[in-house]
Amino acid sequence: MGIELRNRDFITTQDFSKNELDLMLDVSYDLKKKFALGEPTRYLRDKTLFMIFYDESTRTRNSIEAGMTQLGGHAHFLAPAHMQLAHGEAAKDTAIVLSRFGHGIAIRHCLHGEGNKYLNAIAKHSKTPLLNLQDDVYHPFQVLADTMTIQEKFERNLRGLKVVISWAYAESHLKPLSVPQSQVLMFPRYGMDVTLAYPEGFDLMPDIMNQAKQNAEETGTKLEVSHDMADAFKDADVIIAKNWGGFYVGETEEAIRKEQAKHKDWICDRKKMEMAKKHAIYMHALPADRNREVTDEVIDGKWSVIYDEAENRLHTAKSVMALTMGGRP
Ligand code: CP
Protein backbone atom coordinates (compact mmCIF):
# COMPACT_ATOMS: atom_id res chain seq x y z
CA MET A 1 0.00 0.00 0.00
CA GLY A 2 1.24 3.50 -0.86
CA ILE A 3 1.55 6.43 1.52
CA GLU A 4 -1.88 7.75 2.52
CA LEU A 5 -1.93 10.97 4.52
CA ARG A 6 -5.39 12.13 3.50
CA ASN A 7 -7.68 12.67 6.50
CA ARG A 8 -4.89 11.92 9.02
CA ASP A 9 -4.55 13.95 12.24
CA PHE A 10 -1.23 15.77 12.68
CA ILE A 11 -0.71 15.84 16.44
CA THR A 12 2.84 14.50 16.75
CA THR A 13 5.46 13.37 14.25
CA GLN A 14 5.60 10.14 16.28
CA ASP A 15 2.35 9.09 14.56
CA PHE A 16 4.08 9.09 11.16
CA SER A 17 6.62 6.77 9.57
CA LYS A 18 9.93 8.14 8.31
CA ASN A 19 8.67 7.68 4.72
CA GLU A 20 5.57 9.72 5.51
CA LEU A 21 7.66 12.50 7.07
CA ASP A 22 9.98 12.42 4.05
CA LEU A 23 6.97 12.96 1.81
CA MET A 24 5.89 15.98 3.90
CA LEU A 25 9.38 17.42 3.48
CA ASP A 26 9.53 16.65 -0.26
CA VAL A 27 6.20 18.42 -0.79
CA SER A 28 7.46 21.37 1.32
CA TYR A 29 10.47 21.77 -1.01
CA ASP A 30 8.18 21.63 -4.05
CA LEU A 31 5.80 24.22 -2.58
CA LYS A 32 8.74 26.47 -1.67
CA LYS A 33 9.99 26.33 -5.26
CA LYS A 34 6.52 27.05 -6.66
CA PHE A 35 6.07 29.95 -4.22
CA ALA A 36 9.36 31.44 -5.44
CA LEU A 37 8.21 31.07 -9.06
CA GLY A 38 4.75 32.48 -8.35
CA GLU A 39 3.14 29.26 -9.60
CA PRO A 40 -0.40 28.60 -8.34
CA THR A 41 -0.78 25.68 -5.92
CA ARG A 42 -4.55 25.51 -5.42
CA TYR A 43 -4.63 22.02 -3.96
CA LEU A 44 -7.30 22.94 -1.39
CA ARG A 45 -9.61 25.00 -3.57
CA ASP A 46 -12.82 26.01 -1.73
CA LYS A 47 -11.79 24.13 1.42
CA THR A 48 -12.19 25.56 4.92
CA LEU A 49 -9.95 25.17 7.96
CA PHE A 50 -11.09 26.27 11.43
CA MET A 51 -8.22 27.56 13.60
CA ILE A 52 -8.84 27.82 17.35
CA PHE A 53 -6.14 29.73 19.24
CA TYR A 54 -6.13 29.51 23.03
CA ASP A 55 -2.70 31.20 23.00
CA GLU A 56 -0.98 34.02 21.13
CA SER A 57 0.83 33.40 17.85
CA THR A 58 2.60 35.21 15.04
CA ARG A 59 4.28 32.51 12.90
CA THR A 60 1.83 29.67 13.36
CA ARG A 61 -1.37 31.62 12.78
CA ASN A 62 -0.02 33.46 9.76
CA SER A 63 1.72 30.50 8.12
CA ILE A 64 -1.52 28.52 8.37
CA GLU A 65 -3.82 31.36 7.35
CA ALA A 66 -1.65 32.60 4.46
CA GLY A 67 -0.95 28.98 3.55
CA MET A 68 -4.66 28.14 3.23
CA THR A 69 -5.19 31.19 1.00
CA GLN A 70 -2.24 30.21 -1.18
CA LEU A 71 -3.65 26.67 -1.45
CA GLY A 72 -6.95 28.08 -2.70
CA GLY A 73 -8.93 27.66 0.53
CA HIS A 74 -9.76 29.75 3.57
CA ALA A 75 -8.83 29.60 7.26
CA HIS A 76 -11.19 30.99 9.91
CA PHE A 77 -9.50 32.49 12.98
CA LEU A 78 -11.46 31.57 16.10
CA ALA A 79 -10.77 32.85 19.61
CA PRO A 80 -12.23 30.65 22.40
CA ALA A 81 -13.46 33.74 24.27
CA HIS A 82 -15.81 34.44 21.34
CA MET A 83 -17.03 30.86 20.96
CA GLN A 84 -19.38 28.81 23.11
CA LEU A 85 -16.22 27.16 24.46
CA ALA A 86 -16.23 30.14 26.83
CA HIS A 87 -19.51 28.80 28.25
CA GLY A 88 -18.05 25.30 28.55
CA GLU A 89 -19.36 23.70 25.34
CA ALA A 90 -18.13 20.11 25.14
CA ALA A 91 -15.19 19.19 22.90
CA LYS A 92 -17.39 16.52 21.27
CA ASP A 93 -20.06 19.02 20.17
CA THR A 94 -17.51 21.57 18.93
CA ALA A 95 -15.66 18.87 16.96
CA ILE A 96 -18.74 17.37 15.30
CA VAL A 97 -20.25 20.72 14.31
CA LEU A 98 -17.04 22.28 12.92
CA SER A 99 -16.16 19.11 11.04
CA ARG A 100 -19.61 19.18 9.38
CA PHE A 101 -18.94 22.77 8.23
CA GLY A 102 -15.45 22.37 6.81
CA HIS A 103 -12.44 20.23 5.99
CA GLY A 104 -10.09 20.58 8.96
CA ILE A 105 -9.74 21.81 12.53
CA ALA A 106 -6.47 23.26 13.84
CA ILE A 107 -5.85 24.14 17.48
CA ARG A 108 -3.19 25.82 19.62
CA HIS A 109 -3.66 25.02 23.31
CA CYS A 110 -0.47 25.12 25.37
CA LEU A 111 -1.83 25.01 28.92
CA HIS A 112 0.37 22.55 30.79
CA GLY A 113 -1.55 19.35 31.54
CA GLU A 114 -4.56 20.31 29.39
CA GLY A 115 -3.65 21.21 25.80
CA ASN A 116 -2.81 17.79 24.36
CA LYS A 117 -5.77 16.17 26.14
CA TYR A 118 -8.12 18.73 24.60
CA LEU A 119 -6.71 18.22 21.11
CA ASN A 120 -7.17 14.47 21.41
CA ALA A 121 -10.74 14.95 22.62
CA ILE A 122 -11.51 17.05 19.52
CA ALA A 123 -9.68 14.60 17.23
CA LYS A 124 -11.73 11.69 18.59
CA HIS A 125 -14.97 13.27 17.37
CA SER A 126 -13.88 15.24 14.32
CA LYS A 127 -14.57 13.68 10.92
CA THR A 128 -11.87 15.95 9.44
CA PRO A 129 -8.12 16.09 10.23
CA LEU A 130 -7.06 17.70 13.50
CA LEU A 131 -3.87 19.76 13.12
CA ASN A 132 -1.80 20.56 16.22
CA LEU A 133 -0.71 24.20 16.14
CA GLN A 134 1.23 23.59 19.39
CA ASP A 135 0.07 22.05 22.61
CA ASP A 136 1.75 21.43 25.95
CA VAL A 137 3.55 18.31 24.64
CA TYR A 138 4.20 18.71 20.91
CA HIS A 139 4.78 21.36 18.22
CA PRO A 140 4.91 19.20 15.07
CA PHE A 141 4.74 22.07 12.53
CA GLN A 142 7.76 23.71 14.16
CA VAL A 143 9.93 20.61 14.14
CA LEU A 144 9.09 19.87 10.51
CA ALA A 145 10.27 23.38 9.56
CA ASP A 146 13.37 22.95 11.77
CA THR A 147 14.26 19.68 10.06
CA MET A 148 13.79 21.24 6.62
CA THR A 149 16.04 24.16 7.62
CA ILE A 150 18.81 21.87 8.88
CA GLN A 151 18.56 19.80 5.69
CA GLU A 152 18.90 22.96 3.59
CA LYS A 153 21.97 24.10 5.51
CA PHE A 154 23.67 20.67 5.55
CA GLU A 155 22.63 19.30 2.16
CA ARG A 156 20.04 16.82 3.42
CA ASN A 157 22.52 14.27 4.84
CA LEU A 158 22.13 14.82 8.55
CA ARG A 159 23.73 11.62 9.90
CA GLY A 160 26.39 12.40 12.49
CA LEU A 161 25.52 16.08 12.90
CA LYS A 162 25.72 17.20 16.52
CA VAL A 163 22.65 19.21 17.50
CA VAL A 164 22.50 20.94 20.88
CA ILE A 165 19.03 21.68 22.23
CA SER A 166 19.75 23.95 25.15
CA TRP A 167 17.62 25.63 27.78
CA ALA A 168 18.17 29.40 27.99
CA TYR A 169 16.99 32.04 30.43
CA ALA A 170 13.88 34.11 29.57
CA GLU A 171 11.43 36.43 31.29
CA SER A 172 8.66 37.07 28.73
CA HIS A 173 6.51 34.04 29.63
CA LEU A 174 6.80 30.40 30.67
CA LYS A 175 7.49 28.82 27.30
CA PRO A 176 6.00 25.35 26.71
CA LEU A 177 8.05 22.14 26.62
CA SER A 178 6.64 21.28 23.22
CA VAL A 179 9.41 22.68 20.99
CA PRO A 180 12.39 20.89 22.61
CA GLN A 181 10.26 17.76 23.10
CA SER A 182 9.33 17.60 19.42
CA GLN A 183 12.98 18.18 18.45
CA VAL A 184 14.37 15.53 20.78
CA LEU A 185 11.89 13.04 19.27
CA MET A 186 12.36 13.93 15.59
CA PHE A 187 16.08 14.68 15.15
CA PRO A 188 17.35 11.15 15.99
CA ARG A 189 14.99 9.79 13.31
CA TYR A 190 16.93 11.92 10.80
CA GLY A 191 20.30 10.59 11.96
CA MET A 192 21.31 13.53 14.16
CA ASP A 193 23.15 13.13 17.48
CA VAL A 194 21.38 15.21 20.10
CA THR A 195 22.78 16.80 23.25
CA LEU A 196 20.04 18.13 25.50
CA ALA A 197 21.41 20.75 27.91
CA TYR A 198 19.55 22.30 30.83
CA PRO A 199 20.04 23.33 34.46
CA GLU A 200 19.27 20.47 36.84
CA GLY A 201 15.54 20.16 37.43
CA PHE A 202 14.41 21.62 34.08
CA ASP A 203 13.63 18.17 32.71
CA LEU A 204 11.44 17.33 29.76
CA MET A 205 8.51 14.92 30.29
CA PRO A 206 9.85 11.44 31.25
CA ASP A 207 7.61 9.67 28.72
CA ILE A 208 8.94 11.90 25.92
CA MET A 209 12.54 11.21 26.94
CA ASN A 210 11.84 7.46 26.90
CA GLN A 211 10.40 7.69 23.38
CA ALA A 212 13.35 9.84 22.26
CA LYS A 213 15.83 7.28 23.66
CA GLN A 214 14.01 4.55 21.77
CA ASN A 215 14.16 6.60 18.54
CA ALA A 216 17.91 7.12 19.07
CA GLU A 217 18.48 3.40 19.74
CA GLU A 218 16.55 2.42 16.63
CA THR A 219 18.56 4.79 14.43
CA GLY A 220 21.96 4.24 16.08
CA THR A 221 22.30 7.89 17.09
CA LYS A 222 23.49 9.48 20.34
CA LEU A 223 21.16 11.18 22.81
CA GLU A 224 23.04 12.79 25.69
CA VAL A 225 22.03 15.04 28.58
CA SER A 226 24.30 17.78 29.94
CA HIS A 227 23.89 20.31 32.72
CA ASP A 228 26.73 22.53 31.46
CA MET A 229 25.70 24.85 28.61
CA ALA A 230 29.20 25.83 27.41
CA ASP A 231 30.51 22.27 27.57
CA ALA A 232 27.50 21.00 25.61
CA PHE A 233 28.26 23.46 22.77
CA LYS A 234 31.69 21.87 22.07
CA ASP A 235 32.01 20.75 18.45
CA ALA A 236 28.30 21.24 17.71
CA ASP A 237 27.00 21.74 14.18
CA VAL A 238 23.61 23.13 15.21
CA ILE A 239 22.77 25.15 18.32
CA ILE A 240 19.15 25.61 19.35
CA ALA A 241 19.15 27.63 22.57
CA LYS A 242 15.77 28.68 23.90
CA ASN A 243 13.79 28.73 27.07
CA TRP A 244 11.27 26.22 28.37
CA GLY A 245 9.25 26.64 31.48
CA GLY A 246 10.67 24.14 33.93
CA PHE A 247 7.37 22.61 34.93
CA TYR A 248 9.03 20.26 37.42
CA VAL A 249 10.92 22.86 39.48
CA GLY A 250 7.84 24.53 40.99
CA GLU A 251 4.06 24.30 41.24
CA THR A 252 3.22 27.94 40.56
CA GLU A 253 4.38 30.40 37.93
CA GLU A 254 6.01 32.48 40.66
CA ALA A 255 7.96 29.48 41.99
CA ILE A 256 9.10 28.47 38.49
CA ARG A 257 10.20 32.03 37.67
CA LYS A 258 12.18 32.13 40.93
CA GLU A 259 14.04 28.97 39.91
CA GLN A 260 14.61 30.28 36.38
CA ALA A 261 16.15 33.49 37.75
CA LYS A 262 18.98 31.42 39.25
CA HIS A 263 20.20 30.61 35.74
CA LYS A 264 20.61 33.99 34.00
CA ASP A 265 24.04 32.82 32.84
CA TRP A 266 22.32 30.33 30.51
CA ILE A 267 22.51 32.78 27.59
CA CYS A 268 23.73 31.92 24.10
CA ASP A 269 26.56 34.39 23.44
CA ARG A 270 29.60 34.68 21.15
CA LYS A 271 31.90 32.93 23.61
CA LYS A 272 29.70 29.86 23.77
CA MET A 273 29.04 29.86 19.99
CA GLU A 274 32.80 29.79 19.47
CA MET A 275 32.90 26.47 21.32
CA ALA A 276 30.85 25.00 18.45
CA LYS A 277 32.24 24.12 15.02
CA LYS A 278 33.23 27.00 12.73
CA HIS A 279 30.28 26.38 10.41
CA ALA A 280 27.74 25.99 13.27
CA ILE A 281 24.29 27.50 12.84
CA TYR A 282 22.04 29.07 15.47
CA MET A 283 18.30 28.34 15.43
CA HIS A 284 15.34 29.57 17.47
CA ALA A 285 11.62 28.92 16.85
CA LEU A 286 10.86 32.54 17.85
CA PRO A 287 9.67 34.64 19.56
CA ALA A 288 13.07 35.10 21.25
CA ASP A 289 13.85 36.92 24.47
CA ARG A 290 16.71 38.94 23.02
CA ASN A 291 19.68 39.46 25.34
CA ARG A 292 18.25 36.96 27.80
CA GLU A 293 18.04 33.69 25.81
CA VAL A 294 20.51 34.88 23.17
CA THR A 295 22.59 38.00 22.58
CA ASP A 296 21.78 40.29 19.64
CA GLU A 297 25.30 39.56 18.41
CA VAL A 298 24.44 35.88 17.96
CA ILE A 299 20.81 36.08 16.80
CA ASP A 300 21.72 38.79 14.26
CA GLY A 301 25.15 37.33 13.53
CA LYS A 302 26.75 34.99 11.00
CA TRP A 303 25.49 31.87 12.78
CA SER A 304 21.80 32.75 12.73
CA VAL A 305 19.30 31.09 10.36
CA ILE A 306 16.20 32.15 12.29
CA TYR A 307 14.41 33.84 9.39
CA ASP A 308 14.94 30.92 7.01
CA GLU A 309 13.61 28.68 9.79
CA ALA A 310 10.56 30.95 10.24
CA GLU A 311 9.92 31.08 6.48
CA ASN A 312 9.96 27.31 6.31
CA ARG A 313 6.96 27.32 8.66
CA LEU A 314 4.92 28.51 5.65
CA HIS A 315 6.10 25.83 3.23
CA THR A 316 5.82 22.96 5.72
CA ALA A 317 2.38 24.14 6.91
CA LYS A 318 1.13 24.16 3.30
CA SER A 319 2.58 20.69 2.74
CA VAL A 320 0.86 19.14 5.76
CA MET A 321 -2.46 20.84 4.99
CA ALA A 322 -2.36 19.82 1.31
CA LEU A 323 -1.51 16.20 2.18
CA THR A 324 -3.97 15.74 5.04
CA MET A 325 -6.89 17.88 3.82
CA GLY A 326 -6.42 17.28 0.11
CA GLY A 327 -4.75 14.40 -1.63
CA ARG A 328 -6.35 11.69 -3.73
CA PRO A 329 -10.12 12.07 -4.23
N1 CP B 1 7.41 29.36 16.64
C1 CP B 1 6.10 29.65 16.81
O1 CP B 1 5.28 28.75 16.99
O2 CP B 1 5.81 30.97 16.76
P1 CP B 1 4.43 31.63 17.16
O3 CP B 1 4.26 31.40 18.65
O4 CP B 1 4.55 33.07 16.81
O5 CP B 1 3.32 30.94 16.41
Can you give me a brief rundown of this structure?
The protein has 12 helices and 9 strands. It is α/β, with parallel strands linked by helices. The chain has a 5-stranded parallel beta sheet. A 4-stranded parallel beta sheet has the order 2-1-3-4, sandwiched between helices.
Helical run tally: 12
The CATH fourth-level homologous superfamily of the largest domain:
Aspartate/ornithine carbamoyltransferase
**Largest sheet strand order:** 7-6-5-8-9
Indicate the structural class: alpha/beta
Give the end-to-end Cα distance, rounded to a whole number of Å.
16 Å
CATH class of the largest domain: Alpha Beta
Bound molecules: phosphoric acid mono(formamide)ester
Overall pLDDT level:
97
What fraction, in percent, of the residue positions are helical? 40-55%
Largest sheet geometry: 5 strands, parallel
Overall number of domains = 2
Our Rg estimate from Cα atoms comes to 19 Å
CATH architecture of the largest domain: 3-Layer(aba) Sandwich
> What best-fitting shape do the alpha-carbon axes yield?
globular
Unreliable residue stretches: none
Order of helices and strands: HEHEHEHEHEHEHEHEHHEHH
CATH-defined fold name of the largest domain:
Rossmann fold
Proportion of residues in extended strands? 5-15%
Number of strands: 9
